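Hi team,

Filling in the usual template for the complex we talked about on Friday. All components are listed, including any nucleic acid strands or ligand strings, so the model treats them as one assembly.

SUBMITTER: L.P.
PURPOSE: interface mapping
COMPONENTS: two
RESIDUES: 448
SEQUENCES:
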Amino acid sequence: MAEVLTRNNLLFILDGLRTTLYISALSIALSLVFGTALGVMRSLTRGIPQKIAAVYIEVVRNIPNLLWIYVVFVVFRLKSIQAGVVSFTIFTSAAIGEIVRGGLNSVNKGQWEAARSQGFTFLQILLYIVLPQAIRNILPAIVSQFVTVVKDTSLLWSVVAIQELTGKITILVGKFSRVEQFFLLYGIMTLIYFVVNFVISQISRRLQKRWAHH
Amino acid sequence: MFSGNGPFAWFKWEALFQDWRLFAKGFLYTIELSIFALLLALVIGVIVGICATSHSKVLRGIMRVFVEFFQNTPLLVQMFILYYGLPFLGVILSVTTIGIISVGVYHGAYIAEVVRSGIGSITKGQFEAAYSQGFTYWQAMRHIILPQAMKVIMPPLTMQAVNLIKNTSLIAIISGADIIFTAKSWSSTNIYYGPAYVTAGLLYFILCFPLTRAAKKMELRAQEGMGGAREQMA
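RESULT (copied from the run log):
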């Protein structure tokens, strides 16, 4: 036990957690931008942008994330954090796009007509009237999508050798060979993932409860 | 791109078509894994989901811990614990068994949540009405609550099946010979990544897209049904 839990090893693990959170946060930020754009495009009634968004979302979300990570790695030919962020942005944008589309659909169509009759432009209606209402409905789903992102970053070590949390623990496991050392390290890893994701999913649940009452 | 020595050059496709049996085998393996994992997930999901709506606080608490644990830790980590951890304890399972158990239990937790909220969408009055007619808890569940809850449950359940199929791909990481593993190992010897990954993507798409479409259709129908009911009540 003592030889596993040295200061250096704990810092080593924390460094992995930092990489996990860094990749997750960056991918989520980028995906929120692209995903919102995709969702808006997708909810248009017709036109080329609508078709592009529809094809993108359907193709991406019906193919495993693991394959997208491989594809990005092969196309960019680099094993790096950037490649990880790119692959995560590709599939998280599609997921968020679909959530945003659902949220936009949940806002009554009459609001568009009313706003248009008052002289609002398309962008004004979207930004000031429809999106603020849609966000209420979709924020819990978006926040729980963050959990998926954090969990899926665990694939990055096996595929592109990025030393995120799973990577760091796997490296440490390679140095210690006894049963209790293995389970201690895996226990620490599982606990860290659990705490991070449990906090995020509780936030999602609170939002859902709070807004359900209004 | 498609000519000469491009990533999608014709001769690379020809090489892939010649080895089509390999890809067909990977495809069938993914289907097999998905079916068994889905069966396990359904059994776990229905049992845990129903227990989560029971009157017993202890039972509800246990179910909550189960669902939260499996939903908030990565599937890959759960898979690794079975793959690398169990041999320490003298238990050695085949890669296929590990895939079915880990994917099945993980999605079982998600399906439990779907079942629980589906049952929760049925009003309490229905239970009371059933009790007053002499139904037991399980009879009411089986004949009155579940048939109605199915309408609410089916769309998210179908999406869970899609996620489950996609997540069986993690077995490639522990060398299970599924679609992705086949595409990866085939292309790592000849570097024909283009056709290999496009084919792999297409095979998953063929499995998942019809289910996604069906889920969307069922959701629209359920919404229309509820909207109609609401209008009638108003």
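MY TAKE: The radius of gyration of chain B is 22 Å. Confidence is low (pLDDT under 50) at residues 228-234 of chain B.

Thanks, L.
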